[in-house]
Amino acid sequence: MFQQNIALKPFNTFGIEASASQFFAFQDLDSLQLALKHAAKAPLLVLGGGSNILLTQDFDGLVLKNELKGIKLLNETNEHFFIEVQAGETWHEFVLTAIANNWAGVENLSLIPGTMGAAPMQNIGAYGVEIEQVFDHLKAVEIATGELHEFKHSDCQFGYRESVFKRELKAKFIITSVTLRLNKTPDFNTSYGAIQETLDTMEVNDLSIKSISDAVINIRQSKLPDPKEIGNAGSFFKNPTIDKLDYEGLKAEFPSIPGYQLPDNKVKVPAAWLIEQTGWKGKTFDNIGVHKKQPLVLVNYGGGQGAKIRDLAFEILDSVSTKFGIELHPEVNII
After folding, report:
1. Which residues form the FAD-binding PCMH-type domain (predicted)?
2. Which label site among 34, 150, 294, 298 has the fewest CB atoms less than 10 Å from its CB?
3. Which residues contact 237 (CB under 8 A, 6 or more apart)?
4. What is the 3-state composition of the chain as percent helix, strand, coil, each rounded to the nearest 5?
5. Does 1 have pLDDT greater than 80?
6. pLDDT at 197
7. Sign of the torsion formed by the C-alpha atoms of 299, 300, 301 and 305
8. Which residues pair with 49 in a beta bridge?
9. Is 177 designated active site?
10. 247 contacts 256 by C-beta, under 8 angstroms
11. Among the options 51, 161, 213, 220, which is catalytic?
């Protein structure tokens, strides 16, 4: 059923007060296709968990809330499980389901907010793992025609925190299900960040996908604010990649600048370090600010306006560009 003038505060983890002129929640494919016919050429905004958007104004169009549910074992081989997950499933709940069933490969991605539908769109990643590493295919409805299409790994053109759905096909498809290829034999990844240190602190002797998941959850909870307590959308900025020669030049000027070597003579520089060095960490401005523990995270302490958070983000971008000559880019979708 279509609803009019619906408040969107419950549907975005920033907790921004905004409204939609029309709102429709769909639980099956037929309902989605009917809604698209009804919408005609009205502006569309598709919401999953609302954990990767910043609303800066009321939305004068149709908000479609993805509530497709279901997790299904499609097939298995000697080495893999092929699991189809409906796009409205909460990502972390799916990870817990995978762990309970000994489906390995997503344990390092524990506690990432959002839904399954947004996961391949963003190519979510953490602690040395990205979803593209376990991705098999997805299904998506074309907004213009209502037709269902299948996208294989190569079709998605995955990149760092992006895919074809954030570029050429942006706002042209609605992802309805994702099929992942998970492992029967775990390939433990504990070398990234503080995972091994945390496992040692936890006195884990028998390594498992559950113990890695528990370690990642502990790390994330110690560094990142809970959106239920402080409005936020997780990491607001992507970690930039720069040429190795440029990095070496910055290293000469700023000896403590960290960097992670990538292929093709590229270096990834932690955006959190850049933001902290420009003095933004922990800064507050009325009821918004930069988180005191993690400068990648912009926060709404209550009653903050999305437009002011956007302006703060752009000020941070300017500061980093001025000091280091590095262009940061938002990971969050600004609407």
Report:
1. 16-185
2. 150
3. 271, 275, 296, 313, 316, 317, 328, 329, 330, 331
4. 30, 30, 40
5. no
6. 86
7. positive
8. none
9. no
10. no
11. 161
Please report, as a single letter, which amino acid is at residue 220. R
User: Of these residues, 84, 89, 162, 331, which one is catalytic?
Assistant: 331
Record the tokens describing residue 4, joined without a space. Answer: 């009019």
Do 45 and 20 form a contact (C-beta atoms < 8 A)?
yes
User: CA–CA separation, 66 vs 121, rounded Å?
Assistant: 14
Closest CA to 125 of 138, 112, 141: 112
Which among 177, 211, 213, 235 is annotated as catalytic?
235
Residue with tokens 């000697």: 78
Tell me the sheet residues that pair with 135. 180
**Distance, CA of 303 to CA of 246 (rounded, Å):** 41
Domain coordinates of the chain in residue numbers?
3-66, 71-183, 231-334
Residue 282 region by backbone torsions, left for phi larger than 0, else alpha for psi between -120 and 50, else beta: left
Distance CA 212, CA 103 (A): 13
Give the predicted TM-score (pTM) of the model: 0.87
Say if CB 22 and CB 3 are below 8 A apart.
yes
CATH architecture of 3-66: 2-Layer Sandwich (3.30)
Give catalytic status of residue 331 as yes or no: yes
The answer to whether residue 224 scores a pLDDT higher than 90 is no
Q: Tell me, yes or no, if 161 is annotated catalytic.
A: yes
Residue-wise pLDDT tens digits, 252-272: 999 999 998 888 889 999 999
Q: Are 299 and 225 in contact (CB under 8 A)?
A: yes
Pick the CATH number of 71-183 from 3.40.50.11030, 3.30.465.10, 3.40.50.1820, 1.10.3210.10: 3.30.465.10
115-166 residue pLDDT tens? 999 999 999 998 889 999 999 999 999 999 999 999 999 999 999 888 999 9
In which element (H, E) is residue 38 found?
A: helix 29-39
Residue in the structure block whose two tokens are 């990649």: 241
Strand arrangement of the beta sheet that strand 260-262 belongs to: 241-243, 266-268, 260-262
231-334 classified as CATH 3.90.78.10: yes
Position 6 pLDDT exceeds 90: yes
